[in-house]
Amino acid sequence: MAHKKGQGSSRNGRDSNPQYRGVKVYGGETVSAGSILVRQVGTVIHAGANVKLGRDFTLYSVVDGVVKYERLGRDRKKVSVYPAAAEQASA
Predict the structure, then answer these.
(1) Structurally, how many domains does the chain consist of?
(2) Cα(8)–Cα(26) distance, rounded to whole angstroms?
(3) Would residue 3 count as lying in a domain?
(4) Which domain range does residue 57 map to?
């Protein structure tokens, strides 16, 4: 085995693809059923009304409606989707 690197050899050049995590839909926006709301690692944001948690902690909408981010207790957050008809009636 040579103790010196040969000319032009490089031990770098590997990289992984980005994960594209974060909030995909913000509060007040309208979504359709199945829309991804948040991509995350662990439950940084919890699932609220009409929102389900995927096996990779992705939060997605179950119904068509308007997104609302709310507090869950003192130090947690949750995201809910309220049907658009109910949202207009309360406004």
Answers:
(1) 1
(2) 49
(3) no
(4) 22-90
List C-alpha distances in Å: 34 to 37, 58, 62.
Answer: 9, 11, 6
φ, ψ for residue 8, nearest 5 deg = 90, -5
Residue 88, pLDDT score: 58
Residues of the chain under the 50 pLDDT cut: none
- Spatial contact of 37 and 31, defined as CB atoms under 8 Å apart: yes
Distance CA 49, CA 67 (A): 10
Assess contact for 39 and 22: CB atoms under 8 A.
Answer: yes
Classify residue 5: in a domain, yes or no. no
Radius of gyration for the alpha carbons in the chain, expressed in angstroms and rounded: 21
Name the nearest CA neighbour of 79 among 39, 89, 56. 39
The predicted model scores a pTM of 0.79
Q: Residue length, the chain?
A: 91
